[in-house]
Amino acid sequence: MSNKPRDKRITIDEVVATLEDGMTIGIGGWGPRRKPMALVRAILRSDLKDLTIVSWGGADVGLLAEAGKIKKLIYAFVTMDTVPLEPHFQAARQNRTIPEICEWDEGMFQTGLIAASQRLPFLPMRAGLGSDVLVNNPELKLVTSPYRDRNGDQEEFVAVPALELDVALVHMNRADQHGNASYLGPDPYFDDLFAMAADRTFVSCEQVVDTAGLTVDTPVQRMLLNRMMVTGVVETPNGAHFTNCVPDYERDEKFQKHYAASAKDPEAWAAFKERFLSGDESTYQEAVQAFHAEQEA
Q1: Tell me: the pLDDT tens digits for 208-253?
Q2: From residue 22, how far is each of 25, 72, 195, 263 by CA, in Å?
Q3: Are 26 and 167 in contact (CB under 8 A)?
Q4: pLDDT of 41-66, one tens digit each?
Q5: Global pTM?
Q6: Coil, strand, or helix at residue 109?
Q7: Which residues contact 142 (CB under 8 A, 6 or more apart)?
Q8: Residues 6+ apart with CB under 8 A from 251
Q9: Which of 50, 51, 160, 223 is the most buried (most CB within 10 A)?
Q10: Are 179 and 227 in contact (CB under 8 A)?
Q11: CB atoms inside a 10 Å sphere around CB 139
């Protein structure tokens, strides 16, 4: 029996094969930043349905909503930044095609992940008090502090329930074969919380390197995930496209504009899906290269 850490490298399709209908899936990244889009595209190609999606959302949420994969959505926002409202998400909200919606304050969303990561049923916080967040999410309860403050009062808080995840999907710049992973951009987002809130975590990455290589060009503090958090590792170059994955690449603004414009017209969207989403990940990446070659011609 080997005493070395396990090799956790798997393929995109092997990740999706472990997922089941009705699962709660957390998707890391932030809006249009470092999203695990190759894994999202693999879910689009699958027969999975009735998913609960937990995300600071961008095109990941829009694509899954358009494909009818989402039964319940828990989110704080869904945006692509330069396109303020993700078009498929906007259509889904206007047409009420997502059966159950939970829109939380951003701080509450983070607190829910922290509670799950600490295996607590809830955590108290002040955000949301006196707001319509509680009106629109009647399942959120209030809790009274068992301790009196210096004035003798017992303060009331929102009891934010734990956002427990069956699976977390995150995308990092680098990972080793064992599941240790680092980000090279300016922001870790909350990918470590997603991982700790989940029963299983799958990491896609731009490049698999040896363990020593994770800290060759970046401080060890940027190694956000350790192998104890990770179930499987997938090497997917350009796998966050068309969101950014700095410093490896910026957001693909030309492609994002094409995506948003296509989403507003049924005929154009059908053509977009046929060109970019009807094949596997390699076919997608080749189609994106051809798109840019046409733009530059």
Answers
A1: 999 999 988 888 999 999 999 999 999 999 999 999 999 999 999 9
A2: 9, 9, 19, 26
A3: yes
A4: 999 999 999 999 999 999 999 999 99
A5: 0.96
A6: helix
A7: 134, 156, 157, 158, 159
A8: 32, 33, 81, 242, 243, 244
A9: 160
A10: yes
A11: 7
